[in-house]
């Protein structure tokens, strides 16, 4: 069995992947806050899978962990994982003795890219665009994860597409994340609600001017990210995932309209067929956990093949 974990800010999703590539078990549990609690969450998640599947000693071959923040290339060290309360932590070194198997750690969006590639049975090239509190992408070329020498390949969220746009937390104006990130939208909406982005869509449908502006900005930001990913990496498909994609057809309709408008204005953009190259990851898919499991089984994470 290969074990994969998606350690999120509120919950951890863990899967066990059988030798043939099928997901044999899945558990979810709350993620603890701070380095010690995150370490314990990982250990507890693996133990829960062991119990659920009645796995004997030696049945687990490897563990892969997808986590927010930056993962220092070639190490299991996580830095700036603010959603976990972690400034710096060598997560692999901390959990490997307790787990007794090889452990690999990867950024959660990059892990999700590998997982989405496998879940969708993709071939060729694909970009996974995560639309959550922030915006980032993972790029898979012929089954291999593209990290880049500094691990920043796919970090499209902080590309400015409107120099007069809203201020981004990175200090620039008009970044894709400032337009399409759930955190930025919620901050600008500044009204109480459990699901601010959904509230924005509902208010826009009711004619609220601010909501309509925020909703249009979200579509503009996503469409810009799609164009950038296709024009820079020429990926066959851009798969949208993350919490915001729970809006489903409402989000896709807005993004398609934005891409269609650029195609109508430019024969070159029209030739790219961008609307047909965008897909939505099915809701509830364990992409990041599955991708982490596949990466955990690879000697070189950047060369992990998205297969069982």
TrEMBL record:
This is ROK family protein. Belongs to the ROK (NagC/XylR) family. It holds the Pfam family ROK.
